[in-house]
Predict the structure.
Amino acid sequence: MSEDTTAPQDRGEQPASAYSWYVLGVLVVVYILNFIDRQILAILAVDIKRDLDLTDDQLGFLGGAAFAVFYALFGVPLGRLADRWHRVRLLTIGLVLWSTMTAVSGLARNYVTLSLARMGVGVGEATASPTAYSLISDYFPSRQRATALAIYSSGLYLGGGVSLLIGAKISQVWDAAYPGGGIGGFVGWQAAFMAVGLPGLLLALWVASLREPTRPPPVNASGNSPLRDFFIDLSMLLPPFTVFHAMRRGPKALAINLAVAAAMFMLAVVMIGLTDNLPQWSAMTFGYYAVFSWASTLRRHDPATFRLIWGTPAFVCTALGYGLVALGAYALAFWSAFYAETVLDLPKAELAFILGGSGAVSGFLGVILGGRMSDWLRVRNPSGRIFVIMFGILGPVIPIWIGFTTEDGTLFYVMNFLAGLFAATALGAAAATTQDLVLPRMRGTATASFFLATTLVGLAIGPYMVGQISALTGSLRIGVLSLIGVAPISLVLLIYAYRTLPLAEATMEQRALDAMGAASG
């Protein structure tokens, strides 16, 4: 595909309406709350570690895989449901669920109960981005899509930054007012969870008032209702139903599925033996096996969607390349405040204000500038957005190295700001690229697949990797600096995506038809 074949189609689309921008504003508010509820754990980590007697790798699990695996896995059937059901209604239900489970996190009395609550938050939040990405893609034309998705994604950084300010303030005020524990014996970090969770129930009423945009009826070969198909899709991920689906595809499929299950089990045994962390590796290997089972079943039930997502190297390499950007970003978001408080001995109130404020500003600026730049490059080069993702992985390397080797608090804050700013530029470009590589009816599924990489690669591994290396070496500094090692891997994936993307986008309709024809034949 050349500029001549791409740009005219983009210019012929109508610009977004005022109501489109209003919907985008509401979705940004939802995403801000989404990340407040998700990231507030970071500023409360020191207190939680002390009260629940946790290790760094256990904290890494709570900040990563406990949430990420369930967020990623439920995002798959929920993304498929977003393609076939009422997206506004789905987002409203999800908002109620994750807000409730955030408040329930405040009731936790030990590692197990807090882990379960975080898993519940992950399930609820899995509704957010598939529905939002799909709605935004319907409300905004292609030439404005990366900008709109970048504006939506700014909620990630605004919410993450605000969570530090809110979490630190609530916990400190509560503990000062009730030194021995307040009502019900709750301490500051528990009160903070409840305080940020409950407002989401009111926000859900606002979300429910949004209009569902008109779209073509989905192709539904099964003839089932969307909700029935949701539970079928969910069963594709959950053992022992995964084995049943493999059995229906034939002896060869069953043998492959069982072999992958055995391989994942052995991997879990080995890694648990090496790290002594049962929850992390049980969750991780379960997640990877579940994704393999779902993709295998999707190939039979919806071959066109499978072909344009899993069968398109440009899509897979873009998602994985950005997933490694997310690995570093999530790890820094979780551990920076903990590092500043425990290694640099910076006061909690100060670091919460500076890291929270700078994180919100750097993320907001980075994602908006990156989105605008990627749209500008897209008009001139079908693969232009990939350059922005490459910058997102290479740009933070020097700031991370300087920031986490210095003993100067001011320099640490400045470098943390720059690392966040540079990494944030990649998100809008990666999200828009994956949306451009699929047909409209596949956007929810494409979003869920994209977030499999950002969560099962980024969120599930990043915070845990830093915590595990910290526990093994006795140095949180070494744990954070290990993040630099993922940059070359990401760059190789993105170079391949850059080279294959134009042809993949130009041929997606034909490849979808070919996949349907091969399946029916």
